[in-house]
Here is the input.
Amino acid sequence: MNRGYLGLWLLLALYSAAVAAGYLWTTDASARQLWPVVVTGAILVWYTWETMLLRETAARQAEIALRQRDATLEQIEVAIRPFVIIELDGKGFALKNIGAVPALNARVHDVTIDSVNDIVVKFVPTFPVIPAGATANLQMSSIAQGKEMGDFFAAHLDPRFAVKLLDVVVSYQNVEGKEYRVTHAVGPSTVKVGGFKSPAI
Here is the structure.
């Protein structure tokens, strides 16, 4: 028999027993009413307790469902997430997509070498598409106090010659247009990819 029906029949039996006991054990009308009232109160307490347990169970199940949904969404995002880093080789700087899918609108943000003397390194171009596993060569220029200096300050971004730690930021999008930003810490004998943030800010 269904557990719910079993509980209902049990409650009806208890209530009937309380009413019968009231009539058998006393002839006073008030006393006869007491037992059904007591049983009714007990039933209400039991019902309230069962309802609370059901709500807690439902809340736990909802939380588990949300975690499963978040895990599924994370798996989907990982499947369509590119990962673009900046590289330095003998030919200069390049962007490389080490992710499993194409990266869109990839670019390197301006790097401030010296804020006091207003020295900035700029990278071009912005690449509309970098396929998975592909490399795209960058061009760079240095600007000091508004004057074009060619690649004069490029050495600051080469770990072999760098004298201080600088952040180089690469931003790009996935095929859904979701934007990411990867920060590289470049310093003396150091290149560290700090991971990505999404959305880019």
User: Anything to note?
Assistant: Residues 29-79 form the longest helix (51 residues). The first strand starts at residue 84 and ends at 89. The mean pLDDT is 81.
